[in-house]
Amino acid sequence: EQLQRILEQQLSFVVRETAPAKKVYGPDEVRHAIHNGELVNYYQPKVSSRTGEVVGVETLVRWQHPVDGLVFPDQFITTAEQSRLIDDLTRVVLINALKQCRGWRDDGLDLSVAVNISMNNLNSLDFPDFIVDVARTAAVELPKLVLEITESQLMNNPVTALDILTRLRLKHITLSIDDFGTGHSSLRQLRDIAFNELKVDAGFVHGASQSPSQRAILRASVDMARGLGMQSVAEGVENADDWNFLLDLDLCDIMQGYFIARPMPASAMKDWMQEWEMRRHD
Ligand code: C2E
Ligand code: CA
Ligand code: CA
Ligand code: CA
């Protein structure tokens, strides 16, 4: 009976956490959004753990829906990935991000810009050349462009995808492995493709001070990154507790999360930067 009660409690918790189901948009709606300029790039800062300096931003796509308001990627990225619309989506996001990166540089802000790419983007052999063209047009040096690919997608590695990653790397584009710890890439892949950056998934970062097992995985990931000559990023630094804990242990090179800043439109960056300068010198 007691077991029954516990199970029911847990079940109601699960139901509460997952409901209400969010709308997932279909391919026609997503196509319309991409081609009518309804996608907007938001940006979340990445800061150096050592100095607190802003080293770059990650762009996170939003859909400014005319009726439904601001729509988040979990409601349309999968649709795009399943329908090849992801090629156009990624291109739009990349072009916007690189233009913005150039704009910031003209304003005296030297930031790298990270773009999330999907494994499906790595089917097109012309993807590296496309990127080089866009970067050249925007006059952004290729190492300033960071491409983030999730570890779970890396696991399903068609040979062409690995080939394209290698070509991107040879063009000196920065490659980052995202959500590390949630997939299981082989260590050989990490070595062979020569990723530059490893982002430890938020699930091992937020709350690490309270959890020895999270901490162990976090520490092992960071050690491995260092051993392979990669920068390590802690994502999901959500509160002061997470921040202080990571700083005390001197773990990751770079931090990202709500505690530092939420993703914001490009227009909000300047004000945020000023605010951050004050915060970090406090
Ligand atoms: P991601 O690349 O792992 O991005 C991190 C997500 O965590 C973002 O959600 C971000 O807003 C959120 N986040 C940042 N800091 C914190 C924190 O401290 N606490 C918590 N709880 N969350 C935090 P978002 O923007 O909803 O994006 C979700 C996912 O959608 C991204 O996960 C990425 O996989 C995908 N995505 C976003 N933009 C693009 C894109 O342009 N192209 C592709 N292919 N995927 C994208
Ligand atoms: Ca990412
Ligand atoms: Ca991530
Ligand atoms: Ca993620």
Verbal overview:
With 282 residues, this protein is of the alpha/beta class. 47% of the residues lie in helices and 20% in strands. It has helices at residues 2-18, 27-35, 77-82, 85-106, 127-138, 151-155, 159-170, 187-193, 202-205, 212-227, 240-249, 269-281, and strands at residues 39-48, 54-65, 69-71, 112-116, 145-150, 174-180, 197-200, 231-235, 254-256, 264-265. A hairpin with a 5-residue loop joins strand 1 (39-48) and strand 2 (54-65). Helix 2 runs parallel beside helix 4 (85-106) and helix 4 runs parallel beside helix 5 (127-138). The longest helix has 22 residues, at 85-106. The chain is globular. The model has no long low-confidence stretch (mean pLDDT 92). Bound molecules: ligand C2E and calcium ion (3 copies). The site of ligand C2E has 21 residues, from strand 2 and strand 6. Keywords: Phosphoprotein. Residues 23-277 form the EAL domain. This is EAL domain-containing response regulator.
Summarize the structure.
The protein is an alpha/beta fold and 282 residues long. The chain has helices at 2-18, 27-35, 77-82, 85-106, 127-138, 151-155, 159-170, 187-193, 202-205, 212-227, 240-249, 269-281; strands at residues 39-48, 54-65, 69-71, 112-116, 145-150, 174-180, 197-200, 231-235, 254-256, 264-265.
